[in-house]
Write the structure tokens for this entry.
Amino acid sequence: MEAPPIISIEKLVKKFPMGKTEFTALNGIELQFTRGEFAGLVGPSGSGKTTLLNIIGSLDVPTSGTAVVLGMSVGSLSPKEAARLRKENLGFIFQSYNLLTVHTVYENVEFPLLLLGYNSSERKRMIMDALEWVGLTDKVKSKPPQLSGGECQRVAIARAMVKKPSLVLADEPTANLDAANSHNILKTMETLNRELKTTFVFATHDEKVISYLKRKIFLLDGKVDRQEILPN
Amino acid sequence: MKLALKLALRNLLGAGLRTWLNVIVLSFSFVVIIFMKGIMMGWDHQAKTDMTNWEIGGGQYWHENYDPLDPFTLANSHAPVPEELKQEIEKGDIEPFLVVSGTIYPQGRLQSIVIKGINPGQSVFLLPTHKLDTLTDAIPAIIGSQMARNMKASVGDHITIRWRDVKGTFDAGDIVITGIFTSNVPQAENGQIYISLEKLQGMMLMPGEATLMTLRDGKTGMPVIDGWALKSKEDLTASIDAMIKTKSGGQLVLYTILILLAMLAIFDTQVLSIFRRQREIGTYVALGYTRKQVVGLFTVEGTMYAVLAAILSAAYGLPFLTWMAKTGWTMPVETSEFGLAIAQTLYPVYSAGLVISTVLILTTVTAIVSYWPSRRIAKMNPTDALRGKLQ
């Protein structure tokens, strides 16, 4: 029997007000993702990939249609429920890292665990594990401004992965990185996907990222244009 | 809440100089407000203590005609000491005063004075009345240092005084200054000459009579006596209370300016933070905070300025305020010219209530000022905030 999808999107439409008219960012999206996928929303700027990622991440709501993430319909969640979904099940990786600059690497990675109420010793063990996955155990006391771009993004990955979420959403994670760092980051995420069975969904137009994806969903003008799935 | 406190502290300590500048400004407000209020309380305390020790004791019986503001009432403000109080007077718990008008002629000028007759052995006041028990060729008298300065008189000087006895006959005699005292209470010094009660009763032909009777401090439960008005200590210090209240009202302007300065710094920081830290706000939301929780975090962060300021104030303010309480604050001008019960050096008095109320008021105002701009976060779109897009 086939496992239920981790994300199920049906007839999803997202419109943004634009003066007196509306701009349709997503138009009738139909998609499903299963657990453990390493998939990406690929397309040029304005194709709707970040908007779709934000809706999956319960940071935004659809205008119509449904997006069911881990059994919860994003459009009908209260702000509290949406926050809980993000806190317990989702990890985010952003193009510009979005680290808390006045906090140390340790404190940045600790943040999601504080929200989840883990005790100090549990937090320490989980943080050190996460930093070991990304190879930053020697930078625990450093602050983001003291790190390189690649190191910052690795901290962001550790922060997203530390609570072992079911789903990680990565929006252009390599856009600010050079080629070597990009490959490093992607290999790290690929390893985590393989070893922890975490589902990764990317929004990207970077060829380097695209080359790592097992499933590529091409978006164009707010619609799914085509999909490519690599055989296992 | 615990998490918000932890994060707020991390954010504030991580922000470095920006935090400490705000904290220093706010702590300055704490210390200055407590110091100035302490001075007021010290003045109040000093004025009342001095008035008790030098002028009013623990309350007074006034002859029903006596009005200290109207010297013309003095001629008719005397009566025999009531029988009910004689026992207390003998014990020294009540001191009778006879107060009459007189005239002196310093440097050939005519000056109206009040002659007060007081028992030389009294212990209700700090007045050096034992110096009235001196054998001299004239009437022994003591005067205040301010009066002595005005008359250019010193101990040993002879001064002619004139008075009018109860039968309306003018008489005159010499007094000799046997003591000069300093009291900080102008009402006890200005235009007052103290001589022995018995002597004055004799001069005025009013044996056994008094104008007012002063109770030893702390004496309560006194009877109502016909022809005499009982004035409590609170009645007699009402003018000081009113003056302190007026002064405190004026100081409120200074406090308001100080608080406004500190609050402006915090308000500005909060407003700037919300613009500058939009991406951070978006990140908190993405990681699982609700927008309300982020508002709470920013409010706690702002309020913690007051907590840190209180700690900093304690660090440098406590030694400073303690030192000031010991050494006092010397008034920059001669206070005897003020006509108020005010010492040349004021010793601030701080109470736990003063410190706690100041900290609580400032913390509450800081919390409100922090919350005000933070409400804006609740209206932010998290996806725009994540991109650092100005909203």
